[in-house]
Amino acid sequence: MAEATQQPVVFLTEGTKRTRGRDAQRINILIAKAVANAVKSTLGPKGMDKMIVDDLGDVTISNDGATILDEMSIDHPAGKMMVEVAKTQDEEVGDGTTTAVVLAGTLLKNAEKLLDDEIHPSIIIKGYRQAAKKAKEIMAEAADTVSPKDSKTLRKIALTSMTGKVAESAEDLADLIVDAITAVAEEDEGKVTIDIDNVKVEKKQGAALNESKLVQGIIIDKEMVHSGMPKKVKNAKIALLDVALEIKSPETDAKIEITSPDQLQAFVDQEETMLRKMVEAIKKSGANFVVCQKGIDDLAQHFLAKEGISAVRRVKQSDMKALARATKGKVVSRINDLTASDLGNAALVEERKIAGDEMVFVEGCKNPKSVSVLVRGGSEHLVDEVERAVHDALMSVADALKDGKIVSGGGSIEEEASVKLREFAQTIGGKEQLAIEAFADTLEEIPRTLAETAGMDPLDTIVNLRAKHKGKDGKHMGVDVFKQKIMNMKDANVIEPLSVKTQAITSGAEVAEMILRIDDIIAGTSKGKGMPPGGMPPGGMGGMDMGM
């Protein structure tokens, strides 16, 4: 009977792999560190780029953490959780993706040392939670305020976000970004709301980066539907139609019997009359430019051209909404209901050839609440990377305005939080103190990595930086990667939104806690690929198939 009780109880299907306890934690931490190390060297203005080649041979060159992790094929569940950190950071604040992933990886690396010292994961998690909460409080106390009218500071935020991601024309782009965000920002009872979707970014290869421009209106990636239509319309009255300028086909199967040529002619004449009436209704409203979300019949195009009315068709719904916001027009679903009050206004509508493609520019809108940024660049890879940099900068400026709080960059705010966290740890008893100190060490990984990418000695940099922050008025001291020394980052115009930093801590700490909680990996073989013995996934070390 005693022997029977010692038999192992098998409750999993044959072939299922199971890794438990310390081994499971070690594997997950190993994967998370590998993912963090993959993007760590891209941090900061002096960060290196990564080239990712997919199965089809398409190449992506970027130093944007979210883009790199999104393009990489990561199989292991722990690795996928790290990718989710970058995605969450990108969706919430648009910047600081690399920071969030590096923090998560380093938190797990430091937790591994505590686990080796027989400290229970629950105690580490409790300490990490206390530290994350305190770090965000410290950062909020050190933050300065910014207002929508402070365009000088907003420009510094845009520049800080783009430095290292785009070439020397970042200064020109920074002005475009600030103008774009301030144009679409809406203030209600002192609270600023910004919908980033109201800034449309169009990219076109060719021309120099400094030829990128902001359009006070919308760029439609379409051409005029008829060659006889005016290519340039001044003082445009714009009709926005969510209805086809075509004869509707019957919804059910219909059979029309025509027994004579006269009946056929009458049938054709009737169609022509209906289309003519549609065009007359548009003309009567006073419109001289038509934007149609659906199709425009060839005959209707002819009638519009004869009346001197320009038109574009099959325009995206998002562009229709943007045009309505920019021109103050209304999208109409019945042509007979179109009136002069429904029309939008723009100083100029013009078809221009950009990089071999015709595009229609609707510009000169008065106080538009939707604008467009046209990004140019010499090569396809450059334009793609500039577009990503512009998106990050737009989000950073928007975050700063929504939150109204900014901090100095260059690792200065992380070092400030690290120094204060160590002081806080002294007030906490028990083993949680060790976890809080590990969290403080983790925050120092940001200035340490910045120093490494700039070719500075990381250890000397951290020792000097720690000493500066312990002194009076040292909270803005950070790593200047260009001058390769410790400087006041506020004076160096390196400014970042507070929300980017706090979100990186939140995202990084949450995924670290989640991975630390896992003490059992069960991999079935019935569906898809199973894990080989030891719990290591297919794809070798790190469980990452880079697709190369």
TrEMBL record:
Entry's transmembrane regions: none
Pfam families (UniProt xref): Cpn60_TCP1
Keywords, sorted A to Z: ATP-binding, Chaperone, Nucleotide-binding
GO molecular function, one term: ATP hydrolysis activity
Region (Disordered): 526-548
Keyword Chaperone among record annotations: yes
Biased segments, Gly residues type: 531-548
Family: Belongs to the TCP-1 chaperonin family.
The keyword Chaperone is assigned to this record: yes
Name of the protein in question: TCP-1/cpn60 chaperonin family protein
